[in-house]
Amino acid sequence: MRKIAFIMPKLGGGGAERVVSTIIRHIDKSKFTVHLILVQEQGDYLQNLPKDIKVTVLPISKVRYAAPSLIKEIRKIQPDIIFSSIRGMSILIGLIKPLIPKKTKIVFREMNTPSESLKYTRNRWLLKLVYKSIYKRADKILCQSHYMKGGDFVNTFGYKEEKLVQIYNPVDVNFISKMAKNTTSPFPKDQFTRNVVSIGRLSNQKWYEQLIESLVIAKKKGLAVKVWVLGGEGPLKNELISYASKLSVNDLIEFVGRKQNPYIWMHHADLFILHSRYEGLPNVLLEAICCGCPPYCYKSSRRNKRNNGYCWVK
């Protein structure tokens, strides 16, 4: 039986963590012994893991300090495969590769389209160097879309095709359906108001500023609409709340924070909106479709030119 070690900062908060938790729940236990190595024992998804998963929490507080403890744990476990789905952790694993067992194969899953995320990243030259050098130390890189694989890693960063594998994100349809239908609607009873849900970290990537600006037009037209933003983490929460108030649309948008069960919101919503500047293959979009919620996706300039692996409407 082969050993696989999933290495993450924590297991909650975003799509990358959701993907890892889904893989862990459904991986064939007759073929793999699963280890989960965390920097912090935090995250909503921990409670959904099988009881037989071996979880190790490193005795440090941040990824930047994890190298000595991580090397020691990897040497102890002697995994056949290491799997990382967070860029910062992948960079660290790439750096320490010469110090871990040679038999261990390294797999990185890239969570965003690199060329797009670079546009909004400080020290772009440094991150470009990471993709062109440290990331190439992985034995395989999982790409979420065809464009991420061919358009980005091959054409932009010069990767060879054999190092890249395109796999769409997994969606646990049975789990989501069960969670979506086991409670009543979270929305106020108002037959005239259309409830719109958006889910994401309150950061520059998700572009909530333009979503707030679009509510000014909705208000002028007298549209009965209310936007509910799920996901309380992120550096821009106070700024976004102030911006909505400044534009006098704070009555049309509410930041409700993180919810352990976002699927009941999707299931009962009239519309799901994805308004990101860039994505890889957004889990929340797939999950909204699974919940039967009609999706609206903003079409960025990049997606206008090339299929980024998911659907949109204009």
Automatic annotation (TrEMBL):
Gene3D superfamilies: Glycogen Phosphorylase B (3.40.50.2000). InterPro entries: Glyco_trans_1, Glyco_trans_4-like_N. One of its GO terms (molecular function) is glycosyltransferase activity. Residues 194-299 form the Glycosyl transferase family domain. It comes from the Bacteria. Residues 14-174 form the Glycosyltransferase subfamily 4-like N-terminal domain. Keywords: Transferase. Pfam families: Glyco_transf_4, Glycos_transf_1. PANTHER family: GLYCOSYLTRANSFERASE. This is Glycosyltransferase.
